[in-house]
Amino acid sequence: MKILFACFILFSSAFCTDGKIVFEKYCWGCHHQTSLAFGPSFKEIANHRTNGEIIAHINKPENSYKNLGYKRTVMPAFELTSDEYEAISTYILSFKSNKKD
């Protein structure tokens, strides 16, 4: 039973994607968690976008930048796995302010 449980843990963790790792691999050059960099901070993004908007913009920024209020976009499109899209979106949304504006 212990071996079966250990295999389950190893199998599960192999398929879990960490949003912070996705951030460090793809986003860090232009975005920071709480301060303005080349692109908006994750805190700014989280306070103004939904999960779907975040994923759509990462996947095809050329299709969504106007709807998000930008005059242009320099963000490249990223083809990630569905787990990576969900992980990075969840990570970004974790910076959402608790206060109501």
Describe the protein in words:
The chain contains 6 helices and no strands. It has one domain: Cytochrome c-like domain (Cytochrome Bc1 Complex, Chain D, domain 2, Orthogonal Bundle), CATH 1.10.760.10. 54% of the residues lie in helices and 0% in strands. Helix 2 packs across helix 6 and helix 4 crosses helix 6.
Give the topology, please:
Blueprint: H1 2-15, H2 19-27, H3 42-48, H4 51-59, H5 61-64, H6 82-93
CATH topology: Cytochrome Bc1 Complex, Chain D, domain 2
Form type: globular
CATH class: Mainly Alpha
End-to-end C-alpha gap: 51 Å
Q: What's the alpha carbon Rg, rounded to whole Å?
A: 16 Å
**CATH architectural designation:** Orthogonal Bundle
Low-pLDDT residue spans: 4-15
Amount of helix: 40-55%
Number of helices: 6
Annotation keywords:
101 residues; mainly alpha; Cytochrome Bc1 Complex, Chain D, domain 2; 0% strand
Q: Nutshell version of this structure?
A:
The protein has a single domain (19-93), classed as Cytochrome c-like domain (Cytochrome Bc1 Complex, Chain D, domain 2, Orthogonal Bundle), CATH 1.10.760.10. Helix content is 54%, strand content 0%.
